[in-house]
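Q: A reviewer asked whether we had any structural model of the full assembly, not just the individual parts. We don't, so I'm hoping you can provide one. Inputs are below.
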Amino acid sequence: MVPEIGHFALVLAFAVSICLAMFPLYGYLTSQDGFCATAKPLALLQGLALAVSFGVLMYGFLVNDFSVKYVADNSNIDLPWHFRMSAVWGAHEGSLLLWSLILAFWGVAVALFSRGIPDHMSALVLSVMGMISVGFLAFMLFTSNPFVRILPFAPGNGADLNPLLQDPGLIFHPPMLYMGYVGLSVAFAFAMASLISGQLDATWARWSRPWTTVAWAFLTFGIALGSWWAYYELGWGGWWFWDPVENASLIPWLVATALMHSLAVTEKRGLFRSWTLLLAIAAFSLSLLGTFLVRSGVLTSVHAFANDPERGVFILGFLIVVIGGSLTLYALRVAKVSEPGEFAYISRESFLLFNNLVLTVMAVSVLLGTLYPLLVDAVGGGKVSVGPPFFNAVFVPLTAILVSGMAFGPLTKWRQSDDPKLYRPLIITLIVSVLMGLGWPSLLVGSYSIGTAIGVTLALWLAIATAVDFGKKVGLYGGVTTTLNHVEKGMIGMWFAHFGLAVMILGVVMVENHTEHRDLRMGVGDAQRLDNYDVRMTDLVVINGPNYVADQATFEIYVDDQLFKTVTPQKRRYNVSGMVMTEASIDSGLTRDLYIAMGEPLGDGDWAVRLSVKPFVGWIWAGAFLMGLGGFISIMDRRYRRKLEVKKDEASGEEVPA
Amino acid sequence: MNPKRKQRLLIVLGLVSGLGIAIGLIMFALSQNINLFFTPTQIAKGEAPSAQMIRVGGMVADGTVDRDPQSLKVAFDVTDFDHNVRVTYEGILPDLFREGQGVVVQGRIHSGQFVASEVLAKHDENYMPPEVTEALRQSGKLDQMMGGQK
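A: Here is a predicted structure for the entire assembly that you could use as a starting point for your response.
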């Protein structure tokens, strides 16, 4: 009975989303305020219905209701309760439900926090989000219903969750990633609403800016968590694989990053209006494309679990409707967009334009590399694959170009910047970072590598330039009266994010150039030396877990003949599915991780063992964390909480000091 | 031409040429870095280039996995049930690697043997890499394989 409540709530949400897609839009087109006013209540009702539906599915997992096929396929009595909860989004149907729930959640957030926005505008925004919701809920109800039952003969036990997903990573990674993916729909909806209403000045940029930033921050966290999860669970110590599904999340991230910066220009200066609209459409369309790539299984990927081609066709059709529809509307309206104002060649505008150009090229290159196998196959060119060498060859130099501009950008002023004082701190910064960068490999690493020197120089250049900018703005050098309290939160957020990127680049450069790594054959009593660590295998036992049996080895790690740490990596075999999983042991530190994993049994009690020392690997995720944190700090800015006074400024003209 | 238009024209020209150059370079990098896929039958017929990085997909043939007792060296046959390719590899195999399982190996042909630099097996037992499905379909053994699995 209970699952039917969830099913019913899902159908109700579908009906509500159809109303939401139609009524406010109809009300706007016919100037009937009564219809426009339905938007907010409908958005709230949709959110409530989906929350009930989601709650019922989660309840089904918690009470082991194996009469629900989705629960039976993805859970098991022996599965610990927290994994039963996260198993809700462990497979296709449930993750779609999570996606729809988050979309509805964003709709509720828009309905509640849009008091500064004219009613007809928020009605249109919610209506566009309702249309997206219709697509996803129809997809779920017609091809992927999570409430399908196995009756009357329900199985006594479930088939268990894929062991790969039995990890805290599953609890956080997909919800974060979806918050980001789906959050971009808000920026998309604002762009569409301004195109529909023809109000194409810069006001939509101010409204959608905080939403874009917060979605971007979630996306940053989501991708970073996925990378970290891959590192310790399935990646054999790698942190990024240029897997199609990773790329599918990176592409919208790159475009969303460009969008955030271009929104700043549109909001503050009223420039790049049509470009910003296009980016908003592109960012969300690419996150839909990402969903298509993940869910259709057209690409070979670690995420490509067994799946159903019919679903791929549905999402592809939806993708065509969304992208085709939005671009058609854009094409019809873009001629009306005016681009007032000029700017000097050295100005903040031109640096943000540069940022957008580089980020777009990065996104296009990743997109081309990801889709190239599909394109070649479609024209009968045979099966090909594009590997990491391509992505590294393209991405690394582009990042270097991007970062060299990032040091200048924040120091410049809007409109023009012929200020010679600008260059003085930058020249000093450059000299310092080059010297430190050149010295770094010989001081901190045994071997000299020119790649490390360049990479470290870039990271330091960015970090120091960000610090210089910070010092200037808070008046460390005198001449400025502002204190930290008066600096815009957006500025503080930017410092965090730019500094975070510097931290991340340092981590990437070090781990890619100086990882010490060996695959070895080891048995009890064997010792191996790696870097300055002596690793001894001292024991090998069999352990019984709640739903698996594990071979567990004990390794003692010695530094200078002193016992430094004892670790116990495992090789697990899950009882129900029979799948084998590697549980690596990682000793994390500030400047290096020590990674030990068991490969496979080789007979005679020997095991294949992987030993790695990974310098600065933790800095990659620390950097990403700082970046995401910067996003959340930005939206704390007071001006986003100002309500109706903002609206009054619109009438007076384009330039609003903010 | 007024200065505003001139600036906009310059920006657009800059953007278009920048993007054009970038896409040209990307396509060049792509053409240098793609790995073509071959079936065991194609390799047996000598259709695959030697000394170039390629991919081969198929099933790990039963009873063909040989391990070196001293090191991490391993050799096995990849089959599409028409022809076999002998693959050698040194390193840790993926957790789902076993006889009768679909794999994709990446590497080079060296004096008649395929020296793999990477062995890919997927993280879901029911999942078959599309390349392997394709290889089995081409050899006409896909139905037999699917029937055998049930």
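A: Points you may want to mention in the reply: Chain B has a mean pLDDT of 80. Chain B is about 35% helix and 30% strand.
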